[in-house]
Amino acid sequence: MTTTPDDRAGRHCHNALNPLHSAVYFAPDLAKELAPYGIEDPSAVYFAGRAAAMGAVSAGTVTAAFYNFSHHLISRFLPEVWDFASPSTVLAARMRAVDAMLRRLLGDDAVASPQMREAADLALRAAEGCTRPGRPLYAAHADLPVPDDAHLALWHAATLLREHRGDAHIAVLQHAELDPLEALVSHSASGRGMVPSFLLTTRGYNEQDWHGAQDRLRDRGLLDEAGDLTESGLTLRKRLETETDRLDGRPYAALGADGTARLTELAGGFTATALGNGAFPGEVFGKG
């Protein structure tokens, strides 16, 4: 009999599936698709590609929904980016990029395999357990049609599940009174996030901003003088993930323990192949 998975099983499934979604923002394919429209800056490509599901939104909307990017950086590109390409144009370009990326990283045989269709069906079933209220990025993507091709349907479902968890995580960060940069600094210090140099390059902050966030975390007893998490900091980061698991439990409860385990297995295999084929640049994750 299928039972309800525990919260950690949902996190494991998310961790296996999410790289298949997020790889598109590191791959060259999206930039290649948007370049003919004059969208060439890497930040503009990212903001347009991820925000397009919400429509021709303002910088303020994206700052709120993405949470950990500098509003100053976002304001350099939005809302002007929609003058170069409409959201619908960007969404079509994004799906072409996803198709090219997955075929390159996984191979045509994997894309056409029964396992791909099985994974897509499981992920879509999990996504049926997601809820819209309070989750703007998830809700916007949930209004998009499900692609027919299995590999694109899997990417779409992975996107729904990723944004559903991400929206919940933002609520948890706010409850913990971690501002966007404090969240980045503490996650990086845990060794599980991105390295500071990459975050400073892509999130629109400078060294002074980073050191200021470190000082605020030290004042709360969460970071030591060396920039590592204290016991209190480690406890907080663990609590953040546990609470996010709880708020993100419905999709995996809808799928059931057996389905969650099977999706984790299938997605993990595809992700391992993608990682082996260079889905992400080196030296992006860890403390640096």
Spatial shape? globular
Q: Summarize model confidence as the mean pLDDT.
A: 95
The share of residues in extended strands comes to under 5%
Percent helix range: 55-70%
Query: N- to C-terminal separation?
Result: 45 Å
The stretches of 5 or more residues where confidence is low (pLDDT under 50) are none
Taking all Cα atoms into account, the compactness measure Rg is 19 Å
**DSSP helical segment count:** 16
What are the SSEs and their pairings?
Layout: H1 7-22, H2 28-34, H3 42-51, H4 59-66, H5 71-75, H6 81-84, H7 87-106, H8 108-111, H9 114-127, H10 136-142, H11 150-175, H12 180-189, H13 196-203, H14 207-219, H15 231-247, H16 250-276
InterPro entries: HTH_67
Organism: Streptomyces hazeniae
Protein name: SalK
Describe this structure in words.
The chain has 288 residues and is an all-alpha fold. It has one domain (7-276). The protein has 16 helices and no strands. Helix 2 (28-34) runs antiparallel to helix 7 (87-106). The mean pLDDT is 95.
Labels describing this entry:
mainly alpha, HTH_67, single chain, SalK, 288 residues
Give a short synopsis of this structure:
This protein is an all-alpha fold and 288 residues long.
